Amino acid sequence: MPGQTFYVSDRTSAARQLVTLRAQGRTAEADTLARIAAQPSSQWLGDDAAKGIVEQVGRRAAEVDRTPVFVAYNIPHRDCGQYSAGGATDAASYRSWITGVAEALGDRKAWVVLEPDAIAHTLDTCGVKGAAAAERYGLLAFAVQELKRRPQVRVYLDAGNPGWAQDPSAMAEALSKSGAAVADGFAVNVSNFYSTDRNAAYGTELSAALGGKHFVIDTSRNGNGPLSSEAWCNPAGRALGEPPTVDTGRPGVDAYLWIKNPGESDGECGRGEPRAGEFWLPYALGLVRGGA
């Protein structure tokens, strides 16, 4: 892992918008946005096109000896039917989907962040309880096992964030049920804004409960920390965080990653924002300018 260099795709939302801005002669905005487009962001996977995307991105990354970061986001009853609703229709469909993703990864290098919010939603008021939670843990454990059949793939189960109302011991138990022993570790702060220091403390506590498992931190938008513990949906005044790197200088923290692609909307939060996942140029430029 030392010296690991992540793949910078020219097909991210920011990179495509950058081309448009250059073509329109909007030089100042393009120069600002380039600070996002020049960094390695993650490739999210959430539908039947995932296998082809993985093959394409994986091949391009291998050609330049870089490591792509993928986010598997297709668990049944995804996001509790809220802003990012969707996912596989049932357990069998999910198993087939994740097996296809694993096959597409092949023998190439890749990191995979597995199912943001899926475990945390079994511990909050979402309603994924009892048999439904047990099924979800089983699906995640299956996904970890399938992905880890690939020799150069690292897998990190999503573990929520330090502001989510949950018992860290309960999260550790749920991670264990979801295949944490086989995974390379877990991910914290995905699509959220908590400071790197706070995430490191939260992750270290979880790590201790999991026998020293390592973790990664999403630093894509945490430069100014959170607006408040409740303001997760496109909060104003946020900023980019530390660039992606494996050189974190923190024991147990394998990498800082831009798991959430900066500039992509969290959802339609009632202020005219685009739908979840759609690129929103004004917000992206605000993140680069540090909330200005």
The major β-sheet equals: 7 strands, parallel
- Put simply, the count of helices is 8
Shape: globular
Termini separation comes to 36 Å
- Helical content stands at 25-40%
Radius of gyration: 18 Å
Number of beta-strand segments? 7
Which stretches are low in confidence, meaning pLDDT under 50 for 5 or more residues running? none
What proportion strand? 5-15%
Strands side by side in the biggest sheet: 1-2-3-4-5-6-7
Structural category: alpha/beta
Run of helices and strands: HHEHEHEHEHEHEEH
Mean pLDDT: 94
Short description:
The chain is 35% helix and 11% strand.
What is this structure's SSE topology?
Elements: H1 13-23, H2 27-37, E1 43-45, H3 50-63, E2 69-72, H4 91-105, E3 110-114, H5 130-147, E4 153-158, H6 168-177, E5 185-188, H7 196-209, E6 214-218, E7 253-257, H8 281-288
Parallel strand pairs: 1-2, 2-3, 3-4, 4-5, 5-6, 6-7
Helix pairs in contact: 1-2, 2-8, 3-4, 4-5, 6-7
Task: Characterise the protein shown here.
- This protein has 292 residues and is α/β, with parallel strands linked by helices.
- Helix content is 35%, strand content 11%.
- The chain has helices at residues 13-23, 27-37, 50-63, 91-105, 130-147, 168-177, 196-209, 281-288; strands spanning 43-45, 69-72, 110-114, 153-158, 185-188, 214-218, 253-257.
- Strands 1-2-3-4-5-6-7 form a seven-stranded parallel β-sheet.
- Helix 4 (91-105) links the parallel strand 2 (69-72) and strand 3.
- Helix 1 (13-23) runs antiparallel to helix 2 and helix 2 packs across helix 8 (281-288).
- It starts with 12 loop residues before the first helix and ends with a helix.
- The relative contact order is 0.14.
